[in-house]
Amino acid sequence: MVKLPLVQSANAAFVASQQPLVAVVVGGTFNIGAHTVKCLAATHGKTGNGLRLYILGRKAKAAEEIIAECQKLCPSGQFIFIQVTDLALLKNVDLVCTELVQREEKEAKAKGGIPKIDILLMTQGIARPWDPRNGWCIELPSLLLPQRRLCAKLL
Asked: Please, what sign has the CA dihedral across residues 80, 111, 46, 17?
C-alpha cells in the first residue's frame, strides 16, 4: 500500500504545478465531499498557485461554514457555492451544468485565463432515502445516470 506521506507529497507537487487549479466538488457540503474541499484548500494554501473551487451542494448553511474555514486555510483561493436540488433528476443536472459553465467562463475571463475544470469529484448521494423495496434496478440509475450526464455536459 502506498504510504500517506508519499500521497501527500504527490498531491502538493500536482497542486503547485497548476495555475490556477480549478476544481468542482459535487456533494461538497457533506461528508467526503466537504472533507475533500477542506483538504484541497489546506494543500493549496501551503503550496498552490491559485485555486478556484466550485462547491455544489444542497446545504447553503454548511457551504458558508466550509467556505469560511477554507478561506482561513487558503486565503488566496476562490470558493464558489452553487446550490443544487435533487441531482437524481436529469433536468437539475442540466441546470447546474449550465450555471457552472457560465460561472467558470466569467471567472476565467475576469482572471485572464481560459475556462477549465482540472478536477471533477462527484460525491453526491440521492436526496431521498433508499427504498429497499425498489431494489438496485430503481435506485442505482438515479445515482449513475446523473453522474454520467454531469461528465458529458462538462467535457
From this structure: positive
